[in-house]
Write a structure and sequence with these properties.
By secondary structure, this protein is an alpha+beta fold. The chain has one domain: L,D-transpeptidase catalytic domain-like (Beta Barrel). Helix content is 47%, strand content 21%. Strands 3-2-1-9-5-6-7-8-4 form a nine-stranded mixed beta sheet. Helix 3 runs parallel beside helix 5. The relative contact order is 0.18.
Length: 265
């Protein structure tokens, strides 16, 4: 009995030490994550800030003029569209001012959809507009994607021996009712989240919750690996939009795997 009493303080000390280490790591992890957006903003300012040899008071007034900024935004968007129009493949343009998403080929809109909800990173909405304009003056290139539906659906079917055995394909398209949510990752560090508007059914809401949870777990794991290596985690700018399911599916399957996206904010 006396030996158990003697061992008890050591156990408490070990427990307190373990909890202290965990608490310190949580604080360290939180601080590193809070530093991530600031570091991203510093990188953007360093890379995309407007640079001029001479800056007078007149120049500063022009750079902050609302009409000038509006024209520069339109110019940046047109530059991105012109650059993408030189290719023969489909590309996506997202206009956040009129809430439209367009599928284009060589500058011609072949499919248009209305976005019902838009959320963007604070860095893209609150930082220096000239920095954002410079960032959006070139198209984004898709580097990867995650989706709840297949990009290239395949149907395996035995070929008939002759015309008497031929039967028309009557297999239903399950993606017509399957929840459509996906993420388009770009080389510029901006992630485009596309969610379907329809969330009336329970399975659609559950699918979206799982989709978001998987993405958060993936980001958390990536942040943990960076923090344990004494590196500030990478912060990804994001744009989240909602589209009708049919339109979201059309966009996802029409855009090439390494396709391009132009944004107008």
């Amino acid at each position: 009995m006396e030996s158990e009493i003697k061992k008890d303080p050591k156990g408490r000390i070990t427990l307190i030490a373990l909890l202290s280490v965990i608490l310190l790591f949580v604080i360290y992890y939180s601080v590193m994550c809070m530093m991530s957006p600031g570091r991203k903003l510093a990188v953007l300012r360093n890379e995309y800030a407007a640079k001029s040899a001479e800056k007078s008071n007149i120049d500063k007034k022009i750079l902050n003029d609302s009409d000038y900024l509006k024209l520069m935004k339109e110019k940046a968007f047109l530059q991105s569209r012109i650059a993408m129009a030189e290719s023969d493949s489909c590309y996506l343009t997202i206009n956040m001012t009129d809430s439209s998403a367009n599928l284009e080929i060589c500058g011609v809109i072949v499919h248009k959809a209305k976005m019902s909800n838009i959320k963007i990173s604070k860095i893209l909405s609150e930082t220096n507009e000239n920095v954002v304009i410079s960032l959006l003056s070139k198209p984004f290139t898709i580097s990867g994607s995650t989706s709840t539906i297949k990009k290239d659906p395949l149907i395996y079917q035995m070929a008939p021996k002759d015309t008497s055995e031929y039967k028309p394909d009557v297999m239903p398209d399950t993606t017509l009712t399957q929840a459509t949510n996906y993420i388009l990752e770009t080389n510029q560090g901006v992630k485009i989240y596309v969610y379907q508007e329809e969330t009336d059914k329970l399975n659609e809401r559950i699918t979206q919750m799982r989709f978001d949870l998987d993405d958060k777990l993936k980001d958390t794991w990536s942040s943990l690996k960076s923090v344990t290596s004494f590196k500030v985690p990478e912060y990804n700018l994001f744009i989240k939009i909602r589209l009708p399911r049919a339109d979201a599916k059309i966009f996802y399957r029409a855009i090439p795997k390494n396709g391009q996206i132009a944004l107008f904010n």
